[in-house]
């Protein structure tokens, strides 16, 4: 594969934020080892719950940890997709997450647009990649 998308971690709520972020980092390291040609996109964890709560805070902490850890790894990008889900009053709309965890069609559309754009950008070969492919 040229691009691999990883979106895991929100169901690991029984683990600490450090453990969840460490697990995601371990997955990316494994992908790098087994698929060294692939570029990796890690989707950040979404907020969860209708109103602010400890799980939402934990997911935000996981994302903070990933923002500092993933740039140290080769060929990986973190895509933060939680913008726009939490309203100014701290709530999440059931129009985006019908149960305040799982996305609706509209919620997926908010994520898929930036994900699609990033995938298309990563699939465009750089001049160096083209020369290497022809060699």
Automatic annotation (TrEMBL):
One of its GO terms (biological process) is lipid catabolic process. One of its GO terms (molecular function) is 1-alkyl-2-acetylglycerophosphocholine esterase activity. Its EC number is 3.1.1.47. The keyword ATP-binding does not apply. It is an enzyme of class 3 (hydrolase). This is Platelet-activating factor acetylhydrolase IB subunit alpha2. It is found in: Cytoplasm. It catalyses: 1-O-hexadecyl-2-acetyl-sn-glycero-3-phosphocholine + H2O = 1-O-hexadecyl-sn-glycero-3-phosphocholine + acetate + H(+); 1-O-hexadecyl-2-acetyl-sn-glycero-3-phosphoethanolamine + H2O = 1-O-hexadecyl-sn-glycero-3-phosphoethanolamine + acetate + H(+); 1-O-hexadecyl-2-acetyl-sn-glycero-3-phosphate + H2O = 1-O-hexadecyl-sn-glycero-3-phosphate + acetate + H(+); a 1-O-alkyl-2-acetyl-sn-glycero-3-phosphocholine + H2O = a 1-O-alkyl-sn-glycero-3-phosphocholine + acetate + H(+). One of its GO terms (cellular component) is cytoplasm. Belongs to the 'GDSL' lipolytic enzyme family. Platelet-activating factor acetylhydrolase IB beta/gamma subunits subfamily. It comes from Nothoprocta ornata. Pfam families: Lipase_GDSL_2.
